[in-house]
Write a structure and sequence with these properties.
- By secondary structure, the chain is mainly alpha-helical.
- It has 2 domains: 1-29, no CATH class; 47-493, no CATH class.
- Helices cover 67% and strands 3% of the residues.
- The protein has 20 helices and 3 strands.
- Helix 5 (105-125) crosses helix 8, helix 9 (194-209) packs parallel to helix 13 (290-308) and helix 15 (332-361) runs antiparallel to helix 19 (467-473).
- The model is unreliable at 1-59 (pLDDT under 50).
């Protein structure tokens, strides 16, 4: 609009130039008021979403952008001159922690299923307030944010609390007694992992674009239907096949667990536990299929758009005035298009970087084969963005969850003695809190990209063999990571307009 006003002013004289200046002034005032409104709301109530981040504007974010870009660049330059063999040997380093682990998966899964049923019941008959009802808090904060962080640190905890395994195990035992043939069907091989990609995309649509994803009753209905759908699929096609190719939570948490400091291995036929370096398990991974590549790109693109869709840049692009926000329902078409566009742009950039790297290094002609292995370097970035983007929601809404789980039906219970817990939203407010949170977010994003560069270096050596070819092939991908680092830090620092 400013550019159009300037052009008209050039043609029509000083009156229109004055009008253009007034429009620019109104735009700046609108942005300032929207930022002030965000801060005022944040001071009186909890941040329902992690993207409320206007309080970081006082920090020198440009220096963080430059520092983050330089950190990724220096990591690339160092790794380019470091042979991959020492890194590969370091990735094999392990410290045994436990020679055997108890087999309690059935019991822990049944307990998880019982908790799930309680939460669904609370969603249907409990409080209508998303900050008082435990279901939205557990799913969006403790599960989608908190468990993801724990998966990245300590391994596949989801395998122990999966709410389907225990009921499926009991159903299979009953089926054998009744001489039922289970599973009666097989998933077509041509489907690959595309059902999981589709479900992750639908989950992203529901969480980011649905008018009321936090509504307890609506969320309870969606969660219950998804549990029944998944359980029926596991009975029909087998637990393992359905979990690995359709159930998107199991796929997502399994990918994140590859970064953890703990590894579950089998010793003499029994599960054992050992410690390893961060992301060491990625050094020996197998290439993912094209559907696996798409799954990770959807995961990263979704969390990126979650931050971008609330910026003044995006709202201005779709013609929305933050002071006259029309609501999520009115933005469903534009938000859906934006999500698809973000994922497509990320995928195009990733494949273009790999294609250019192959061309420079004279490597494999099929980028598809290279992508299946190199996509693993995206996992640390996806986890870093997930943690950085949702950390404020975890800090504040986690406190609400602590209070809500003690009184799931809002009828005066105090199961764990935390029902009267006083929630302190001020933990994310104030200059000092803003500085700590910003440094944490920036450090996580920069560290994730640096780790991704190192992993990409090791994986490229597996593809090309030659140290020179490996280094040359990584130049375009390193540039892409530098740009994405700056983009991620900008998302965290720019104010939210909605």
């Amino acid at each position: 609009m400013v550019g159009i006003g300037f052009a008209l002013g050039t043609c029509k004289g000083s009156l229109n130039r004055h009008s253009s200046r007034m429009r620019r002034l109104k735009l700046h005032v609108s942005r300032a008021c929207a930022t002030a409104a965000n801060l005022a709301l944040a001071s009186t109530e909890a941040l329902a979403h992690a993207s409320e981040r206007g309080h970081v504007l006082l920090l020198p974010t440009q220096y963080y952008w430059l520092g983050g870009a330089l950190a990724v660049l220096v990591t690339f330059l160092i790794s380019a001159f470091v042979p991959a063999e020492p890194l590969e040997r370091a990735a094999q380093w392990r410290i045994p922690l436990a020679r055997s682990l108890p087999r309690l998966n059935v019991l822990t899964s049944l307990l998880s299923f019982a908790v799930f049923l309680l939460l669904v019941a609370a969603g249907f008959v409990g409080s209508r307030d998303p900050l008082s009802n435990p279901l939205p808090l557990v799913i969006w904060t403790l599960l989608w944010v908190g468990l993801t962080v724990l998966q990245g640190l300590f391994g596949n905890i989801w395998a122990w609390i999966n709410p389907w395994y225990g009921p499926w195990w009991l159903a299979v035992r009953l089926g054998r007694r009744l001489e039922w043939d289970m599973p009666p069907f097989r998933l077509p091989a041509r489907l690959g992992g595309w059902p999981a990609v589709a479900l992750l995309f639908l989950f992203s649509l529901f969480g980011l674009i649905s008018p009321a994803p936090d509504d307890p009753a609506q969320l309870a209905l969606v969660a219950l239907c998804y549990w029944l759908f998944t359980f029926a699929g596991m009975l029909a096609f087998g637990f393992r096949a359905w979990s690995e190719r359709v159930e998107f939570l199991t796929v997502f948490f399994g990918l994140v667990a590859r970064l953890s400091l703990l590894e579950r291995v089998r010793t003499n036929g029994r599960p054992a536990l050992s410690a390893c370096l961060p992301a060491a398990k990625l050094a020996s991974v197998k290439p993912l299929s094209l559907s696996g590549v798409a799954f990770l790109l959807v995961a990263l693109g979704s969390v990126s758009f979650d931050g971008f869709m609330r910026t003044f840049t995006w709202l201005g692009a779709i013609g929305v005035n933050p002071l006259e926000y029309p609501g999520r329902t009115a933005l469903i078409p534009s938000s859906t298009f934006g999500l698809v566009l973000m994922i497509a742009a990320l995928a195009a950039s990733f494949f273009a970087a790999l294609a250019l790297g192959n061309l420079l290094a004279g490597g494999p002609r099929e980028v598809r084969k290279t992508a299946g292995l190199m996509i693993w370097s995206i996992v640390p970035i996806a986890l870093a963005y997930h943690v950085a983007h949702y950390v404020t929601a975890l800090l504040v809404n986690g406190q609400y969850a602590l209070a809500a789980v003690s009184d799931p039906f809002s009828n005066g219970w105090n199961l764990f003695g935390t029902a009267g817990y006083h929630v302190s939203a001020g933990i994310v407010l104030g200059a000092e809190s803003a500085r700590i949170i910003w440094n944490l977010q920036a450090g996580v994003i920069i560290g994730g990209h640096m780790l991704a560069v190192i992993i990409a270096h090791v994986l490229a050596h597996r593809i090309y063999g030659s140290a020179r070819q490996s280094a040359v092939s990584q130049i375009p991908l390193a540039l892409l990571m530098i740009c994405y680092t700056v983009f991620g830090l900008w998302l965290l620092s720019t104010p939210a307009g909605a």
